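Subject: Predicted fold for DUF4124 domain-containing protein, 166 residues

User T.R. writes:
Posting the sequence so we have a shared reference for the thread.
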Amino acid sequence: MRLLTNAPALLLASSAILCAPAWGMYKCVVDGKTSFQETPCAGAQAQTKLKEQYAPPVATAAPSPTALSDQEKLATAERERLRRDAEYALRDANAAVSNHRAACDREQQYILGDKVRSNNNLAGAVRDQSISAEAQAAATRCDTRARELLAQVESARKRCDQLGCR
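User M.O. replies:
I've generated the structure tokens; pasting them so everyone works from the same file.
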């Protein structure tokens, strides 16, 4: 019980002993007498080195191999993220072109559907001409937007090729 009350002192003393540097220890036999000392024996008949002198390892400023591998892992993950983003951008650009073309086709069918209902007279001819002009304007708008979307596809394809997409 008394040992537990002195536990901090005992812990401190044992820590001091364990943390003390280990110096060289020599066993010397001089004229049949054995002695122990920290320095090599002078004129001894027998000398035994009992302990090596302890030298703590020298800290180096070079990064550890695990730190480099962590940096490499981060760089690899970043490249993979960029590649995946490029693939998604290319996929989305191609989908935008397809969706745009489908929307343009639907618009043309809607506009030209009115032409069927035109009468075969002067009013019908004027109406047909108006419908044709509207269809032509819609086709021009669609073509302009399609060119913009195709330029985005080409840009996304180049970026993807640079990053090594599948």
